[in-house]
């Protein structure tokens, strides 16, 4: 561990918030609106490399409220996991309370990390616009782990499995489970930190 600590460099943020939404989907048509059904965030300490907290909620969709077989087969999320859960606006309130308790009230600096730009550039803004929900401004910038992986390794990855393979890590859990993907992306972040990579924001609204 001492050798790892030697490679760690000061980061621009005290915490990384690794986020990977799952949303309603179908194999033969594009759903409109597409709605978030799983909202996981892993809070990683950039200095200790420890996961200090996890926010994880399933979300009940309003418009396409019956999950398709394709969606369940892809994500592992069955109908009973979203039935009776909070809708997106209440989950966002819960998340804001979590942010206030863990980070905002303490003045900690942080950056969201996503696998691609879709989660915070497209998915969350489109759903908030459709339902006229005020989106917290802290979601307006993020780190696309694919771009930072490419910056650190000179290889642009097709997706998360390729990054894990490139770092000699096995996939843990189920790909396209939001919480499992978030934890696996966190493992990628940790490995890049151990290699001395310094992360920077890659996306903004």
Automatic annotation (TrEMBL):
The keyword Hydrolase applies. Residues 15-198 form the Exonuclease domain. It holds the Pfam family RNase_T. Keywords: Exonuclease, Hydrolase, Nuclease. GO terms for molecular function: 3'-5'-RNA exonuclease activity; nucleic acid binding. The keyword Nuclease applies. CDD domains: ERI-1_3'hExo_like. It comes from the Eukaryota. Gene3D superfamilies: Ribonuclease H-like superfamily/Ribonuclease H. This is ERI1 exoribonuclease 3. It comes from Mizuhopecten yessoensis (Japanese scallop).
């Amino acid at each position: 561990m001492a050798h790892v600590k030697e490679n760690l460099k000061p980061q621009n943020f005290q915490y990384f918030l690794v986020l990977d939404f799952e949303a309603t989907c179908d194999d033969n048509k594009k759903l409109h609106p597409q709605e978030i059904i799983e909202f996981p965030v892993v809070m990683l300490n950039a200095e200790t490399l420890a996961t200090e907290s996890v926010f994880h909620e399933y979300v009940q969709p309003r418009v396409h409220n019956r999950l398709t077989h394709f969606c369940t087969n892809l994500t592992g999320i069955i109908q009973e996991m979203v039935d009776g859960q909070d809708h997106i606006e209440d989950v966002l309130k819960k998340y804001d309370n979590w942010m206030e308790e863990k980070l905002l009230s303490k003045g900690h600096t942080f950056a969201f990390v996503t696998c691609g730009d879709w989660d915070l550039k497209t998915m969350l803004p489109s759903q908030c616009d459709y339902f006229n929900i005020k989106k917290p401004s802290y979601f307006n910038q993020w780190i696309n782990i694919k771009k930072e992986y490419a910056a650190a390794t000179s290889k642009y990855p097709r997706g998360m499995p390729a990054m894990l393979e490139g770092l000699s890590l096995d996939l843990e859990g189920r790909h396209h489970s939001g919480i499992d993907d978030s934890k696996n992306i966190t493992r990628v972040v940790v490995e890049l930190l151990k290699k001395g990579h310094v992360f920077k924001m890659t996306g903004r609204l």
